[in-house]
Amino acid sequence: MIGVFGGTFDPIHLGHLRPVLEVHQALQLERTHFIPCRIPVHRTPPLADASTRLAMVRLAVEQVQGFVADDRELNRQSPSYMVDTLVSLQQDFPTDSLCLLLGADAFAQFEQWKSWRRILQLANLLVMRRPSGMPLDLAEDLRARVTAEQKVFRASQAGRILFFDVTLMDISATRVRQAVMEGKAIRYWVTDKVCEFIADKKLYKSK
Ligand code: ATP
After folding, report:
1. Tens digits of residue pLDDT in 148-188
2. What Rg, from alpha-carbon coordinates, does the chain have?
C-alpha cells in the first residue's frame, strides 16, 4: 500500500510530517508520496510558487526512509485535481493499493472534491484527526465505508475509510507564514533545513 499525501505545503511543517510518519509506520506503507499541488482548487493561491514549495518538501523528506517528494502535479498544466493524481499513480504503480491521507478538516469538504466517488474507486481514505475537530455528520455512503480495523483497511484495494488518531500538533502553514511576516521565530514548527531555506530565500516576508 502506497501513502499519498497532497497539500499546498506553503510551507510544509511538522504538523504535516509527524502525523504522516505515524500513519506510515502504523500501516507499514511501502512508501508515502508527498505531492505539492501546482494550482490548488479548494483554497486561496499559495504565496510561494510551486517549485519553491516542492524544494521545501524535498528538504523536509529527503532523509526519511520511505518518504518521497513527488512532482507529478507540478508537471500538469491543469488545476491539481486529486482524482487525476490518483489515476496517474495507479498507472505508475498498477500492483499497489493507494491510501490517500487527509486531515479531518480536508475530509470535511471531501464531497465537494471533483469526482469524489471515483476517488473512492481508486484509493482508500485515511483521515488523520487534528486539533480543529472532527466532522460529525458523515453522509450515509461515506459512513458505510468506515472501518475501525487497520487489517481490513490494509487489505482493501480501494473504497475504505479509516479514522486514525495522530499526535495532535496545532501548527498550520498560515501560522508559519504569519510568524515570518511578523519577524518571529518558526524553528520547531518546520524542519531546520526548511527554516534555513525560508530565511535564505526571504520567503513570506510580505503578503
Ligand atoms: P494553510 O494554513 O495554508 O491552509 P495547512 O497547514 O492546512 O495550510 P495544507 O498544505 O493545506 O496545510 O495541508 C495539506 C494537508 O495536511 C491537509 O489534508 C490538511 O488537513 C493536513 N494538515 C495540515 N496541518 C495539519 C496538522 N497540524 N495536523 C494534521 N494534519 C494537518
Report:
1. 999 999 999 999 999 999 987 889 999 999 999 999 999 99
2. 17
Distance between CA atoms of residues 167 and 171, nearest Å: 12
CA neighbor of 108 nearest in space, from 91, 88, 85, 132 = 132
CATH fold label, 2-169 = Rossmann fold (3.40.50)
Nearest to 48, CA basis, from 181, 184, 207, 182 = 207
Q: What is the DSSP letter of 167?
A: -
User: Which DSSP letter does residue 29 get?
Assistant: -
Ranges of each domain in the chain: 2-169
Assigned C-alpha cell, 56: 521545501
Q: What distance in angstroms lies between residue 103's CA and the mean position of ligand 1's atoms?
A: 7
Grid coordinates given for 46: 499559495
Q: How far is the CA of 104 from the centre of ligand 1 (A)?
A: 9
Cα-to-centroid distance, 56 and ligand 1 (Å): 15
- Which residues make beta-bridge pairs with 200? none
